[in-house]
Amino acid sequence: MISTYMHLGHYDEAFSLFSEMALEGIKPTASTLISMLSACGRLASVERGKEIQKYIDQEMLFTNVTLALALVDMYAKFPDGGLWGALLSACKTHNNAELGIRIVKRAIECDPDNDGYYITISNLYDSIGMCEEAERMRNFMKERGVETAVAIGFI
């Protein structure tokens, strides 16, 4: 029903039904969550999207690749480093380097001057034995003129 509301562009009705489900203790399916994430992206409703991601994390659903990609698609509409960082953190927590690489590629599209993304993708490639790809990303970063931030430590 939620996906039908979404298909017809009745986003408020979809969110209302989703809320009613939660109040009644009905657990949403992955396809329902995907529909809701799609609505969040279309409506630029980052707060609702974060709530859905929190539920996904609590229920340990992040291993569902289709659901994880729906999160990536939603966050791609909100070029916010903190949001990308949350997704990358979840990938690290769940040892999902392949999904992390997909996320970082999207993050780089949104913020191509963020040195942290290039470093993260290089590290992810290294972690799964793709050393040539890691080196290619480091070189790509240099070619684009992206400078790494200097860390200052206090002893």
What do you see in this structure?
- It holds the Pfam family E_motif.
- It comes from Tanacetum coccineum.
- PPR repeats lie at residues 1-28.
- Keywords: Repeat.
- This is Pentatricopeptide repeat-containing protein.
- It contains 9 helices and no strands.
- With 155 residues, the chain is an all-alpha fold.
- The chain folds into 2 domains: 1-64; 79-147, Serine Threonine Protein Phosphatase 5, Tetratricopeptide repeat (Alpha Horseshoe), CATH 1.25.40.10.
- α3 (30-42) runs parallel beside α5 (65-76), α6 (81-93) packs antiparallel against α7 (97-110) and α8 (115-127) runs antiparallel to α9 (131-143).
> In CATH's first tier, which class of the largest domain applies?
Mainly Alpha
* Share of helical residues: over 70%
Strand tally is 0
What is the SS-derived class?
A: mainly alpha
Distance between the termini: 59 Å
Q: Quaternary state, please?
A: single chain
DSSP strand (E) fraction?
under 5%
* Helix and strand run: HHHHHHHHH
* Number of H/I helices: 9
Poorly predicted regions: 151-155
